[in-house]
Amino acid sequence: MRRKTSLVLLALAVFFAALSPLLRWYAFPRLAKIPANQYQDMVLEAKNATLIDYGSMTAKKVPKVTIVQTLKGNVEASEKIEKTVGKDVVVWDGLSYVVGPDGKMVSKIPERYIFDAHSQEPVHATGEMVDDTPVKREGIEFKWPFLTEKRDYEYFDAQARTSAPIHYEGTRTFRGVDVYYFEQTIPWTKVPFPKTMPVQGITPESIAKTGTTRWYTTVRKFWVEPLTGAPVYGEELHKEELRGGTLLGGRDKVTVFAGDVKMREDYIEHTVDLVKSNRTLVLVMTSYLPWGFLTLGVLLLALSLWLEARSRRPAPEKVDTPEPVTA
After folding, report:
1. Is residue 149 a contact partner of residue 177, using CB atoms and an 8 Å limit?
2. Does residue 178 sit in helix, strand or coil?
3. What is the CA radius of gyration of the chain?
C-alpha cells in the first residue's frame, strides 16, 4: 500500500515540477494580453505655460493648458485585422485634445495605434495613422511590454511621425511602486501642422503658402512598472515654434506652446492603484504559482521517496518463544 502511494506521489511531483516552467514560459506569454475593448483616459496639465495668441500672433503666459488624452479599443477593427495576420491584435483609437485657459480648443490630433496584444509590437495594417495621415510605426507607444527589461526601447513620436530610442535611466520608487525610469529627447524637428486648426478659415495648406513652418522639441519622461509594462506617471518638457515666412511679419520665430506637461494628481492616484492590482495578477502567473508548484513538487518527491524507503525496510524477524516447562 505504501509503495502504491509513493508512486502516486511521485507522479504528482513530476506533474507539478513540469507545470512550473510551463506556466511561466509557455502559458504566461499566451495568456497575458491587452484586452481589445479597453478604454482609458488621462488628463495632463501644463501650469504657467506659454501659448500663442493667434489674434496678435504673439506668445503669452497663461495659467494653465490642459491636454485630455483618450484611448478607446476598437473591437470590430481588431477582429477584422486578426483574420488577416493570424494573431491577437489590439486597435486603439486615440485622441489628444488640447484646451487653453479659456476652454477653447488649441489642437486635436487623432491616432490609430495597432499592436500585438501580447508583445505590444506594432502591427502594420490599413488604418494605422496619426492625424489622418498613414504612418508605419516602429517600436512601442503608450505602453511597454509585459516584463519590461532594463534597456533602451524604440519609442514612436506622434508629432515627428518617427521612432527614436527612449533610454533606460535606472530603477526608482514612485508612490510605493518600484519602477523603471525612461527618458527620450527629441531635438528640434520640423513637423506638420495639425489638420484641425484653432482659428476658423486657417488650414495647413494656407499656412504653407506663407512659408511659415512648425518646429517641435520635447524631453519625454516615463516611470514604468516593469511587470505590467504600464507607465504610472509621465511628464514632457514640450516646446513648439513657428519659424519664418510672411505670417510672422518679419520675425524669425514665435513660440506656439512651451510648458512642463504633467499628469493631474487624481489621475496619478487612479493609475497607481490600477497598476498595483494588475501587478498582482502578473506576479501570480510569473512568480507565485510557478515557484509554488515547484516547491510542491519537491515536497511530494521527498514524501514519495520517504514512503518508498519505508516500504522496502525489512520487517522485524519473529522470535519463537519457548513454551514454559510445567512440572
Report:
1. no
2. strand
3. 31
C-alpha cell at 257: 506652446
Stretch (H or E) spanning 2: helix 2-22
Contacts of 123 (CB under 8 A, 6+ apart): 81, 85, 87, 89, 114, 115, 116
Provide the edge-to-edge strand list for the sheet that holds 89-99. Answer: 133-134, 129-130, 105-116, 89-99, 58-73, 39-53, 253-263, 230-243, 213-225, 177-191, 162-174, 153-157
- In terms of pTM, does the model score above 0.85? yes
Give 243's Cβ-side CA count (13 Å radius).
12
pLDDT attached to residue 319: 53
Provide the mean pLDDT of the chain.
90
Q: Which of 192, 182, 258, 254 is nearest to 224 (CA)?
A: 182
Confidence (pLDDT) at 322: 60
Q: What is the pLDDT of residue 303?
A: 84
Please say whether the beta carbons of 234 and 223 come within 8 A: yes
pLDDT digits (tens, 9 = 90+) for 79-110: 999 999 999 999 999 999 999 999 999 999 99
Those residues with Cβ within 8 angstroms of residue 84's Cβ, 6 or more apart along the chain or in another chain:
125
| Residue in this structure with the C-alpha cell 491616432, named with its chain if needed | 111
- List, in sequence order, the alpha helices (H) in 1-138: 2-22, 28-31, 75-85
What are 243's three cell numbers?
519659424
d(CA 146, CA 151): 14
Q: For residue 235, give the C-alpha cell.
A: 511628464
Residue 327 has pLDDT above 60, yes or no: no
| Whole-angstrom distance, CA of residue 317 vs CA of residue 59 | 104
CA distance 305 to 14: 13
Around Cβ 259, how many Cβ atoms within 10 Å?
A: 22
**Any idea which residue has 484646451 for its cell?**
99
Count of CB atoms situated within 10 Å of the CB of 24: 18
Percent residues over pLDDT 90 in the chain = 67
pLDDT at 20: 87
